[in-house]
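Notebook B, p. 112. Complex prediction, attempt 2.
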Amino acid sequence: MPAVSKGDGMRGLAVFISDIRNCKSKEAEIKRINKELANIRSKFKGDKALDGYSKKKYVCKLLFIFLLGHDIDFGHMEAVNLLSSNKYTEKQIGYLFISVLVNSNSELIRLINNAIKNDLASRNPTFMCLALHCIANVGSREMAEAFAGEIPRILVAGDTMDSVKQSAALCLLRLYKTSPDLVVMGEWTSRVVHLLNDQHMGVVTAAISLITCLSQKNPDEFKTCVSLAVSRLSRIVSSASTDLQDYTYYFVPAPWLSCKLLRLLQCYPPPEDGAVKGRLVECLETILNKAQEPPKSKKVQHSNAKNAILFEAISLIIHYDSEPNLLVRACNQLGQFLQHRETNLRYLALESMCTLASSEFSHEAVKTHIETVINALKTERDVSVRQRAADLLYAMCDRSNAKQIVAEMLSYLETADYSIREEMVLKVAILAEKYAVDYSWYVDTILNLIRIAGDYVSEEVWYRVIQIVINRDDVQGYAAKTVFEALQAPACHENMVKVGGYILGEFGNLIAGDPRSSPLVQFNLLHSKFHLCSVPTRALLLSAYIKFINLFPETKPTIQEVLRSDSQIRNSDVELQQRAVEYLKLSSIASTDVLATVLEEMPPFPERESSILAKLKKKKGPGALPVSELEEGKREGGGELNGGADRGNDMSAAASNASTPSPSTDLLGLRSAAAIGSAGPSTGSLLVDVFSEAGPTALSSGVNDEGFLRDLEPPTESSDSLLIEAPGESDSEDSAPPLPESDELLNKFVCKNNGVLFENQLLQIGIKSEYRQNLGRMYLFYGNKTSVQFLNVQTKPVEPLVEGGAQVQQVINIECLTDFSEAPLLNIKFRYGGALQNITLKLPVTINKFFQPTEMASQDFFQRWKQLNLPQQEAQKIFKASHGMDIELLKTKLLGLGCALLENVDPNPENFVCAGVIQTKAQQVGCLLRLEPNAQAQMYRLTLRSSKDTVSKRLCELLAEQF
Amino acid sequence: MQFMLLFSRQGKLRLQKWYVPLSDKEKKKVTRELVQTVLARKPKMCSFLEWRDLKIIYKRYASLYFCCAIEDQDNELITLEIIHRYVELLDKYFGSQVCELDIIFNFEKAYFILDEFLLGGEAQETSKKNVLKAIEQADLLQEPRHEYFNVPVY
C-alpha cells in the first residue's frame, strides 16, 4: 500500500480499499461491501454520537463504494452534517459526497443550501471556494434559485480574493447553463466584461469562459468585450515566452487563455473599429508566422499548445470569412499538416479544411490538396481520420471534380468500415445528384451504390433515382439496360430488385428489342429474385408484372399463371393476395385500351406536387373548390392570428379548428383522414399557430394505381406542435435573430417544396409542403439526431420531449392573404444537455408558392405583356449563371416555380417564357416571366411583369438566386 | 467539457467527473460504451474520435487512460494539454510519478485537485503553482489525528 502522502490519512478507509482490491471475485467484493455497509449503518444508527473524524471516514467509504458502481441509499444526512463542521477536511469530504451523490430530496437540498449559504458568508476564502465548487458541481435548479443572485456580487466585489473570483465565475457559468433565466447579469455586465483586464491571469482565464457563454446569448450587451479581448490577446501573443511565468506552458505563453480569447472573438463579426481590427489581424498573422518558426522544444506539449492556438486562430479566420489573404495562408498551413507525421495534426487539418472549403476565398486553395486527401482516405490506418478525409472530399466537391471524388468514394465504400458506410452512401448519392451533368453517370453511380452497399442505401436514395429516371426520358433506356445487367448478378441486393422492378416495369420496352433482354427474359430475371425478397418488394414486383402485361402482351399467359398460383392468390399476406387477385382480374377482363390507360407510363414527378395531390386534382377537376370559405370559417373559430399585420406582412396562417373532420383536409391531399384535437389557445403574439393532429388512420391504399411511390413518407404517429413565435412581438426578446444562412436556406425552396430545411448536429428539420390556390399546408419534421432527449420543447399542447433518434411532425396551415416579401419566421427552442437551443429560420413560404399556372397562346402572351407596360410593373435583373446552363435543369426549376412554362411563344427558341396567376385572398395577380439565357456570356436576363409592382419585384429577387 | 473519465487498461473506472446532468443509469451506459471504444483503439491512432455528437479526447499515461468529452466547437489540442496538465498536477502532488494506486487510495484528493484545476468543465486555474498552493493550503488546515497513528498498517 502506498503511503498516504499528505494530510491526514484515513487508515480505516485505506484498509477497506485494500480489502476490496484483494477480493478474488465479484462475489467476494460484494460480500465485503455488504459487510462494510452493515457496519456503517450500525455506526450511523448507534446510540453513541460519532465524532467528526469517524463520520468523515464512513462517508468517504460510502463514496468509494458508490464510485465502484454500487447503489448507496443512506449517509446523505451524515454528509450534510459534515458540511457545517468547522474542520476543513470534514467539510471537504461532506461537499465531495454531496457533489457526487446529490439527491433531489427537498428536505436535504434545503439543508445543503443552508450550509452553502453560511460558507459563502464566512469570508473564509477556502470555505467560500468549497461552497462554490459544490454549486458548480451540482448545478441544480434549486441551487440556481438560491444563489444566482448572490454569486455575481461575489464575482465583482473589490475585496474578493482572486481564487474565489475564479470559482465564482465558473460557478455562475454552470448555473447559467442549467438555468439561464435565473442568471441575470444586468448592472454587473460591464464589471464582468472588465474582468478581461484583470491583472491575475487565472481570473481572466476563468472569467472568459463565462463571458463567452453570455456573449453567445446576448451579443449586444457584451460587445465591449471585443476590443478588450483583442488587446489582451495582442499582449499575450507579443510577449516573450518567459513573461507570463507560470502561465507559460512549455514555452507557449498562456495557451488556454489565448484559445479562449480567440473563441470569444468568434461570437462576434470582425471588429468595426479599424484600429482594433488592425491589431487583431496582426495577432493572427503573428500566430501564423509562429507556426513556421522552429519549435522551442521537442516536447509534444509544446507543439500541441502552439497548434491549439493556431487552430483556434484559423477557426476565427474562417468565422470572419473576409480576409482572403489570411484564409489562403490558413489553407496552406493546414496543407502542410495534412502530411505531418502526427496523426492528431492530420486529423485536425482535415477537419478544419472542411470548413475552409465552404469559403469562396479558399475553396480553390483547398481543392489543390485533393490528391493528398484521397490518399488519406485510402491509406490512413485510423478510421476516424479516414472519416475526416471523406468529409473533406465531400466538402471540396464541385462540378469540376465531382466525377473523381464520387469514384474515389465509391471505391472506398467497398472496404469502408461499417460505422461510416451509411453516411458515405448518403454523401455519394447527394454529390451524384447535385453534380450530375450527365444522367447516365448518375444512374451508374446510384446502381453501383446499391451494388456495393445496398444495406446502407436508404429508401430516399432509391426513390430519388426512380424519380429522376421517370422525369428524364433521355436516360430511361440507359437505366433499363444498366439495371437489367445489374440484376444478372447471382446475388443482388433487394434494393436493386426494387429499382429493377420499377424501371423495367416502366421502361423494359426500351430494351426489349435485344433478344438477350426480350420481355420473357426480363420477366424471368425479375421473377427469379421474387422468392428471396420481402413482402414490400414482392408487392412492387407484382405491380411490375402487371405493367409487363401491358407493355408486352406476349408475357400475359406466363404472368397470369404466376398470379394464379396458390402462393400468390392465396398468399397469407393480405397486400400480396389483394394485388394478385386484382391484377389477375384486371388482366383478364380489361380491354387492351383500358389496360393501356390504367397502366400508362408514370407521368413525370412534379417537384412541387405530391403524387397524391395530383391524383386528387384529376379526380375533382379544376372546378371551384370551397376551400377558401371553409378556411375562412375556421379562421374565425381559431381566432385571427395575424400577428404580423403591424409589420406590413400579410402572410398569415389560419389555424384550422380541426375538431371536426373537414373536407378541406382531403382537398389538400392529406393522408390523415380524421383530425382530432382542437386549435391551441391562440394569442395575438403568434404569427403561425399550430395544433395537434391525430396520426394517420387506416388508409385504403389504392392497390393498382400507378403511384408506386405514393407512400414515400408515411406521416409519423403524432404531430406535436412546437410553439412558433412571431418576430417583433412581446416574446421575441427570447428568440434568436434569424440565422445568417436563413436566406440561403429559403432560396433553396423557391423551386421545390420538399427537402431538408435545416440541419445541425442536433436537429434536422425536414419540410414537405403542398399548395393550392392561396392555401398551403406544410409539414415540418423535427428529427432529433442525438441519442438523448430534447427537453423542454415548448409545445402546444404539451408533449415536451422528443425522443433520441425520433422525429416529430408538425403541420402548419397557411393562407396567403395578400402578396408579401418577407418569409414568416420559425423560432425553435429546446433544451439539449442543459443548454437552451434557440434557432430562428425563415419558413420557406415564398409568394411563388401560390402560383396557378396559366396556359396561353403566343399572341395572348404578347398582348398581355404589352398591357403590363407601366415601368413599375416590370422588374428586371441581369446576372451571371451560377449553376451552369443545362436546359433541362432550367425547365425543371421553372416548373418548380409553379407557373406554366409556355412553349413556342418566344420567337427565340433559347428563351423561356412562363405565365401564372398568384392567388391571394385579397386579389389575383397575373404574372408573366421571360428568361433569356446567353450561353456565351454565361449570363441571364430575367424580366418579370405583373399587375402589382411588389410582386414583380419580389419574384425577380427570388428567381435571380435560382439560376 | 462535458465529462472526464479515468480508467485502467482493464477497464476499471478510477475517476469520473460529470459537468452535465445525467442520470446514474446514463452515466454507467456512457462509461461502458466509451471504455470499450477507447480500449479497442490501437496505439498510434489519433487521440480524437467522434462519439454521439461529442468529441472524445483521450490519452494513455502508463496503465491509465484519461478521457474527456468536449463539444463540437471546443479545441481538441488544448483539451489534450488539459489532460497533461492534470497529470502533472497529480505527479507533483503525489511526488514523482503518479501511479494508478495513488489515485485508488487517495481518490478524494484526485477529485479535490481536479476541482481546483477545472470547474464546471472549464479551466479555472492553469498555473501549476497556484493549483498546488491551493491544495497545500487545504492540507495545512488538516489536523493530525494522533490517536489513529497506532493503528497497525499492513
